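Changelog entry: the DNA replication complex GINS protein PSF2 record was regenerated in this release. Current contents:
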Amino acid sequence: MALPRQHQSSFTPREIEFLAGNETITIIPTVKLPKLDFIQGTIGPFQPPLKSTVPVWLALLMKRNNLCTVVPPEWLTVENLTSKLEDEQTEPEFSQLPFRYMELSHMLLEVASTDIPNAEQVRRLLKDLRETRQAKTRLGIQSLDDESLMMNNMSLMEINEIRPLFIRAFNEMRKLRQAEDT
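Regenerated structure tokens:
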């Protein structure tokens, strides 16, 4: 499939979600299952009510088939997200969140929202957090120079969103500096 030119230098959100599927998460199986053999290795056996750590893609597949309960990550709580949102609103730096927090939270809320306490409030906090971080990103781009972009603790999805703009702006500033030096 041919992508529009402006998207060729970045991943699609679905591709980024696919990459995030290999992150691990804790589940509580609801049925006893033997070891499962996959290309990436063997996972299991699963014995309720013992917790197991599995790739997110497997946790979501098992959840869709009612074979497990997903244990939400520590960072995906109302308390933690409220704290991060307050940090974002008061601190000049980006608050530290998992590198793939946007993709993981989207996938978990889509499939396992019943396992996440206060899922609707978590959704609202994530939306507010995203909007606050986007505003910070716009401010950071205003201070762009041709050597670096100093915005630490950005997620993969956030980096991917600004990549096409940054690449074009960086190249133009580099050309201007080269013309200035000659």
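The longest helix spans residues 156-181.
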